[in-house]
Write a structure and sequence with these properties.
6 strands, NAD(P)_dehydrat-like, oxidoreductase activity, acting on the CH-OH group of donors, NAD or NADP as acceptor, NAD(P)-bd_dom_sf, NAD(P)-binding protein, oxidoreductase
C-alpha cells in the first residue's frame, strides 16, 4: 500500500480454500465458493491430534485468502489483486530438494511409499509450468483484475500416472496399481485460464498429464530415487 510502484499482486492460495477434493463432493466451485467447513473443524475443541493437521492446513488457506480479499475490499489498494488456487502440483523439479517435500507424489510412487498417497484416492492436478504461467499472466495481462482462478487441468488418480511411469522406465519395477482409487466429481469453469495459457504460452492449453509425469519422473531417476 505504501509503495506506489506496485501495480499487480498475486496470492497463491489453494483448491482447499474453496472446497475439499474428496470423493463424493459434487460442489460447483464459483468465484465466491469458500470451504467454511474446514474453518469450523479446525477450531473445534481439543484433543488436538496429529490427524487434524490436514484440516488445520486447509483452514489456514481459507483464512489467509479471506483476509486477503477482505483487505482488498476495505482498503481498495491502488494495485490489481488476483488469486491463484492450485490443486495437486506435478511436473519438473528443478532441484533435488523439491523431491524431499511431503507433496512429492511421483517420488513416493517411485519408491512405493504410499502411506500419504492413500489419503487421496482421487485428485485433480496441474503442471507446475502451467501454474507458473498463470501467475505471470495474472501479473502482466491487463484484462485480469480481481480474479480467483482455479487451475484444474487433470482429474486423475495414481493409477493414471503409474502406466506413464512404467512406459518411461520399462527396466524399473514399479508398484502395482493401487486399489480403491476413483475420480473427483467437483466442477468449475477454467475457460478463461485455458485462453490465458494459449495467449501467453506455447502448448495451446494445459500441459498433458503424460508430459507432466515424464518431466517429473526423469530428474528423480537421475537423482537415484
Amino acid at each position: 500500500m505504501k509503495e506506489p510502484s506496485v501495480r499487480e499482486f498475486v496470492i497463491t492460495s489453494s483448491l482447499v480454500s474453496a472446497t475439499l477434493p474428496v470423493p463424493g463432493n459434487t460442489t460447483r466451485v464459483e468465484r465466491d465458493t469458500w470451504n467454511e467447513m474446514v474453518l469450523e473443524m479446525a477450531w473445534a475443541p481439543p484433543p488436538y491430534e496429529a490427524e487434524r493437521g490436514g484440516i488445520v492446513y486447509a483452514a489456514s488457506k481459507v483464512a489467509t485468502e479471506k483476509a486477503f480479499w477482505d483487505f482488498v475490499e476495505k482498503r481498495k489498494p491502488h494495485f490489481t489483486a488476483n488469486a491463484i488456487l492450485p490443486p495437486m502440483i506435478l511436473g519438473e523439479p528443478l532441484h533435488k530438494s523439491h523431491a524431499e517435500v511431503k507433496a512429492a507424489y511421483i517420488r513416493q510412487l517411485m519408491t512405493g511409499d504410499t502411506a500419504f498417497l492413500e489419503t487421496m484416492p482421487a485428485t485433480v492436478a496441474v503442471d507446475v509450468k502451467d501454474l507458473a504461467l498463470l501467475h505471470i499472466a495474472a501479473i502482466l495481462d491487463p484484462s485480469i483484475r480481481n480474479v480467483r482462478f482455479n487451475t484444474w487441468a487433470h482429474f486423475c488418480n495414481y493409477n493414471d500416472m503409474l502406466p506413464i511411469m512404467r512406459a518411461q522406465l520399462p527396466e524399473r519395477r514399479f508398484i502395482d496399481d493401487m486399489p480403491g482409487l476413483t475420480k473427483l466429481s467437483l466442477t468449475t469453469d477454467t475457460e478463461q485460464q485455458v485462453e490465458l495459457l494459449k495467449k501467453w504460452g506455447t502448448n495451446g492449453g494445459w500441459v498433458n498429464l503424460k508430459q507432466t509425469v515424464e518431466e517429473n519422473l526423469m530428474p528423480l531417476a537421475e537423482w537415484g530415487y
